[in-house]
Write a structure and sequence with these properties.
The protein has 3 domains: 13-211 and 247-340, ABC transporter transmembrane region fold (Up-down Bundle); 352-389, no CATH class; 394-632, P-loop containing nucleotide triphosphate hydrolases (Rossmann fold). Strand 15 (597-602) and strand 16 form a beta hairpin. Helices cover 60% and strands 13% of the residues. It is α/β, with parallel strands linked by helices and 633 residues long. It contains 19 helices and 16 strands. Helix 5 (130-172) packs across helix 10, helix 6 runs antiparallel to helix 8 (232-285) and helix 14 packs across helix 16. Mean pLDDT is 82; it is low at 1-7 and 629-633.
C-alpha cells in the first residue's frame, strides 16, 4: 500500500497560530510571555555574579579581613536570592496562566471549528471521510495543546537564555565565544539533518492517523455488513495496511526525534571539555583577551564560561527537542486551518419566512406567534415588504445539474408541483431521484434552469427559511442521543409534548413508543440502536409530522417498514400529506399509485410522466416496472 502523501505545511501557519492565541487572550498571553522572559533573564544573571565573586576571591590577600570580604560578597548573594524568588513567582504565575490559556484556546478553537462546520455545504461531508473530520477534533487539537503549553514557553525561555548568555560571553571573551559558537554550528547542522527527516515523517504521521481513524469509523458503522458478507479478514487486512503505514511513519519520525537529543547533548559535553582545555591553555600561554569589557583573561572568566557553555548548549538542545512537537503542531494546525478555511455555504437570499395571519380576503399580516400559516417576506426597492402566502407551489424548469463539472447528472428536468399535489419519482438506482429533492432543498445549486417556490426563485430565499418550510424523511434515519420525545421535537423545537404525541399517533409510532420502558422519556443512543429500523423510521416520520410543513419530501420513507406496519403508517401519512405538496421517492410502486403525477427517470432524464392509470395504459417503462414488481410480490 502506498504511503499517504501529505502536502507541505502552508507558510505562515505558525504565525497564524500565535496570532490566534493573541486574539483569544490579548492581555493574559503577553503577560505570560513577559513572565517567561523574566525567568529566562534571571537564569543568565548568576554567571555575571559568579565572575564577580571569583574575581573578588582572586584579589583577596591572606591577611585580608574576612568581614570586609563578606561585605563585598553577601550583597551579591542576597541580590541573587531575591532574583531567584522573583523568578520562582514568575514561573509559578506563567505556568498557571499558560494552563488557562491552553485549555481556553483549545476550547475556543473547537467551538470555531464546530461553528464553521455547521455552515459548510453538504458537498464537503459527501466528499470527506467523517473519521478524518473527527481527527481534527482529537489528534490535531492535541498537537496544538503540546505547542502552546510546552513548545512555545520552552522556545521563548531557551531562546532568551541563549541570547542573554551569548551577550555575556561576548562581553567577557570573544576567543572563548568563537569556540562555543563553533560547537553550536555543529549542533545546528545535526539538528537540520535529523530535524528535516523528523518533520517529513511527522507530517505523514498526522495524515496516516486521520486515514486510520476514518477507516475504523467506517468499519464500526458497517460492522453488520462486514459480518453478513464474512469480510472480517478483508477488513482486518485493510486495517493492517493502514496501521502499518501509521507505524512506519511514527517509527521513523520518533527515530529521528529520539536520536537528535542524545547526539546534541554529547556534542555539548565534548564542547564543555574543549572549553575547559582551551581556557586552561589560554591561561598558561597568557594569550591576550579580546572582549567587549576589555578585561584580562583570568580564572574568573574561565569558571563562569564553563557554566555558560553548559547553559548555552543545554538550551540549544532544548530548542532542538521542540522540533518534533513544533512540526506535529504545525501539521495539526495546518489541517485545522484547512477545515476552518473551507468555503462556507453561500446564502444570498433576502426573502424570509414569517408566521402569518391570512384574512378571508387574502390579506397577509405578519405575527410573532405560531399560527400554522406562513408567508414569504420579500423586500422591495422602496424599503417596504411584499408578503406572499406560502402555498407550496414548486416548479423546476429545464434544470441541468452535475455534482462535478465533468459529470452531469440531470438533464432538462421540468417538474410542476401545484399546492396539495403529490408528485412521485420512480426509476432505477442512480437515475437522479434523490438529486432532484437535494436541489429543492438547495443542498446543491443547479448549473442551469430555474427552480421557483410560490413564484419566487429559490436562490432569493434564505436557505434556513427555505429548508424550514420543507419536511423531509430520508431513507437513512438519524436519531440523536436523548429521549424519544426530544427526537420527535427536533422537527420543531417549540412544539409541546401534546403536539409531539399527536404527531407520533399520526405517524403510527405512538403504539410502540408507549410500550417502551419509559415511554416517550426512553433514552436513545447510538442512533437509536435499541430500536428496530422500522421503529426508527416511524420516529423520523413523526419528527417530520410535528414540523407541520407545507411541503414534504419522502425519500423511501417506508422502505424499512414491513408490509403490515406500512399499511398503518400509510394511513397516517395520507392524513399528514393531505393539503400539502408532497414529493415521494419510492421503489415500492404500490406506494405511489395514488400520486397526482408520477415521473419516471432514467439516467438523469424524465422519460415518462402521468398518473398511474395513464402510464399503465402507455405500456412503457413504468408498466414494465410495475408488472415486474407485481410478479415479484
Amino acid at each position: 500500500m502506498n504511503k499517504p502523501k501529505r502536502p507541505p505545511v502552508k507558510k505562515g501557519t505558525l504565525k497564524r497560530t500565535i496570532l490566534t492565541v493573541f486574539q483569544a487572550y490579548p492581555v493574559m498571553f503577553p503577560v505570560t510571555l513577559l513572565c517567561i522572559l523574566f525567568s529566562a533573564v534571571v537564569a543568565a544573571v548568576p554567571d555575571v555574579l559568579i565572575q564577580k565573586i571569583v574575581a573578588a576571591i582572586e584579589t583577596w590577600q591572606p591577611a585580608q579581613d574576612w568581614p570586609s570580604a563578606a561585605k563585598e560578597i553577601v550583597p551579591m548573594v542576597i541580590f541573587l536570592a531575591v532574583l531567584y524568588l522573583l523568578a520562582l513567582a514568575a514561573t509559578a504565575l506563567y505556568t498557571q496562566l499558560m494552563a488557562v490559556i491552553t485549555q481556553g484556546y483549545l476550547s475556543k478553537m473547537r467551538r470555531k471549528m464546530f461553528d464553521g462546520m455547521q455552515n459548510l455545504p453538504i458537498r464537503y461531508f459527501d466528499s470527506t471521510k467523517h473519521g478524518d473530520i473527527m481527527s481534527h477534533y482529537t489528534n490535531d487539537i492535541d498537537t496544538l495543546r503540546q505547542l502552546i503549553s510546552q513548545s512555545i514557553p520552552s522556545i521563548i525561555r531557551a531562546g532568551s537564555v541563549v541570547i542573554c548568555v551569548l551577550g555575556i560571553m561576548l562581553y567577557y571573551s570573544i576567543w572563548m565565544t568563537l569556540l562555543v559558537l563553533a560547537g553550536v554550528t555543529l549542533m545546528f547542522y545535526v539538528s537540520k539533518k535529523f530535524g528535516g527527516g523528523c518533520a517529513k515523517y511527522f507530517l505523514r504521521h498526522q495524515k496516516s492517523m486521520g486515514a486510520t481513524e476514518g477507516y475504523i469509523q467506517e468499519m464500526m458503522n458497517g460492522q453488520k455488513v462486514v459480518k453478513v458478507f464474512c469480510h472480517e479478514q478483508d477488513a482486518q487486512e485493510g486495517f493492517d495496511a493502514l496501521n502499518d503505514a501509521l507505524f512506519d511513519d511514527s517509527y521513523r519520525a520518533n527515530c529521528y526525534s529520539n536520536i537528535l537529543g542524545p547526539i546534541i547533548q554529547n556534542i555539548g559535553n565534548i564542547l564543555y571539555v574543549l572549553v575547559a582545555v582551551v581556557g586552561g591553555a589560554l591561561l598558561l600561554t597568557d594569550v591576550p583577551n579580546i572582549s567587549i569589557s576589555g578585561m584580562p583573561f583570568t580564572l574568573s572568566i574561565v569558571i563562569p564560561f564553563l557554566n555558560m557553555t553548559k547553559q548555552f548548549t543545554g538550551n540549544i538542545n532544548q530548542l532542538s527537542q521542540q522540533i518534533n512537537h513544533i512540526v506535529m503542531a504545525l501539521a495539526g494546525a495546518n489541517r485545522i486551518f484547512e477545515l476552518m478555511d473551507q468555503e462556507a455555504e453561500t446564502d444570498d437570499g433576502l426573502v424570509t419566512l414569517v408566521n402569518a395571519h391570512i384574512a378571508a380576503d387574502g390579506t397577509v399580516t405578519e405575527v410573532k406567534e405560531h399560527t400554522g400559516k406562513w408567508a414569504w417576506k420579500q423586500p422591495q426597492e422602496d424599503g417596504s415588504f411584499l408578503y406572499i402566502p406560502l402555498c407550496g407551489d414548486v416548479r423546476l424548469t429545464e434544470v441541468d445539474f452535475g455534482y462535478t463539472d465533468e459529470k452531469q447528472v440531470l438533464y432538462d428536468i421540468s417538474v410542476y408541483a401545484e399546492p396539495g399535489q403529490k408528485v412521485a419519482f420512480v426509476g432505477a438506482t442512480g437515475a437522479g431521484k434523490t438529486t432532484i429533492t437535494n436541489l429543492i432543498n438547495r443542498f446543491y445549486d443547479i448549473a442551469d434552469g430555474k427552480i421557483r417556490y410560490d413564484g419566487i426563485n429559490i436562490n432569493k430565499i434564505r436557505k434556513s427559511d427555505l429548508r424550514s418550510s420543507l419536511g423531509i424523511v430520508l431513507q437513512e434515519t438519524n436519531l440523536f442521543t436523548g429521549t424519544v420525545m426530544e427526537n420527535i421535537r427536533y422537527g420543531r423545537l417549540d412544539a409541546t409534548d401534546e403536539e409531539c404525541i399527536e404527531a407520533a399517533r399520526l405517524a403510527g409510532a405512538d403504539s410502540f413508543i408507549s410500550r417502551l420502558p419509559e415511554g416517550y422519556e426512553t433514552q436513545l443512543s447510538g442512533n437509536g440502536a435499541n430500536l428496530s429500523q422500522g421503529q426508527r423510521q416511524l420516529i423520523a416520520i413523526a419528527r417530520a409530522a410535528v414540523a407541520d410543513p407545507p411541503v414534504l419530501i419522502m425519500d423511501e420513507a417506508t422502505s424499512s417498514i414491513d408490509t403490515r406496519t406500512e399499511a398503518i403508517v400509510q394511513r397516517g401519512m395520507d392524513q399528514l400529506m393531505e393539503g400539502r405538496t408532497v414529493f415521494v421517492i419510492a421503489h415500492r410502486l404500490s406506494t405511489v399509485k395514488n400520486s397526482d403525477v408520477i415521473m419516471v427517470l432514467d439516467r438523469g432524464r424524465i422519460i415518462e410522466r402521468g398518473t398511474h392509470e395513464d402510464l399503465i395504459a402507455e405500456r412503457g417503462t413504468y408498466y414494465q416496472l410495475y408488472t415486474g414488481a407485481f410478479e415479484l410480490e
